[in-house]
Amino acid sequence: MSKIKTVLWPKVILFGDSITQGSFQPNGWGADIAHKLARKCDVLNRGLSGYNSRWGKILLPRLFSSTNSEENNIAAVTVFFGSNDCALQDKNPQQHVPLQEYSENLKEITRFLASVGVSADRVIFITPPPINESAWEKECIVKGFTLNRHNSVAGQYAQTCVQAASQCGAHVLDLWTLMQKDGQDYTAFLSDGLHLSQEGNQFVSQHLWELLESRVAHLPFILPYWGDVDAKSPESSLLCDQ
User: pLDDT tens digits, residue range 129-147?
Assistant: First the structure.
């Protein structure tokens, strides 16, 4: 009997901080993307709560294979850092990353991905969402801190993310701008002033899918539709290379 060929699903990798880590919760944006891509891609959650772009950049070689092989078949990568980078330096120096370094980190992440076969047109940057300062301040006080993030500063990081994407040739989802478009009340998108509510997760999923769909539309449905399996000789349907 000839050797059976392993079926390799293409990958969509979600890389970022807690907003990515939590995206596989019920009704989360990552879970929704994974549902849309069932039988087409493996959607992998590589979200790391509390991490910033500096730490993410350092970790890349541990998260992505350095060999550009068939097994490293990556259809798209989302890069979603900034909500921790933009923490105020005097209030939260551990997570804070200066604006210029944040820009360079995003570019370095893109260069690394290119080195393992993920071209810039398959990379989607996601900016930090806006911050509801009054709600987040309450969370900070409960944890024994003072307010350590400002929405205006998050906006600076969002703008820098957009610029870095343009310079790298990557795509970008500007949540900070979209969630505040036309003066709409963005606070409903946030659960605690910083992280996404159910409505916020739906917002991210909807807008991310608009960017992602064209990058995965060409991918085939993996393995035969059940109605196409030869019931008398299922091996002939299930063990072929298609």
Answer: 999 999 999 999 999 999 9
Three-state DSSP class for residue 79: strand
Measured distance CA(177)–CA(161) in Å, rounded: 12
pLDDT of residue 51: 98
- Using DSSP's 3-state secondary structure scheme, residue 41 falls into coil
β-partners of residue 14 are 45, 78
17 Cβ partners below 8 Å, 6+ apart? 47, 48, 49, 50, 51, 52, 56, 80, 81, 83, 84
State the pLDDT at residue 7: 87
Give the catalytic positions in this structure: 18, 192, 195
pTM for this prediction:
0.94
Beta bridge partners of 143: none
Burial of 127: CB neighbours in 10 Å, binned 0-12, 13-18, 19+: buried
DSSP-derived secondary structure for 174-215: -HHHHTTGGG--GGGGBSSSSSB-HHHHHHHHHHHHHHHHHH
Tens digits of per-residue pLDDT, 64-92?
877 655 567 899 999 999 999 999 999 99
Task: Please give the pLDDT value at position 8.
Answer: 87
- Pair 135, 196: CB distance under 8 Å: no
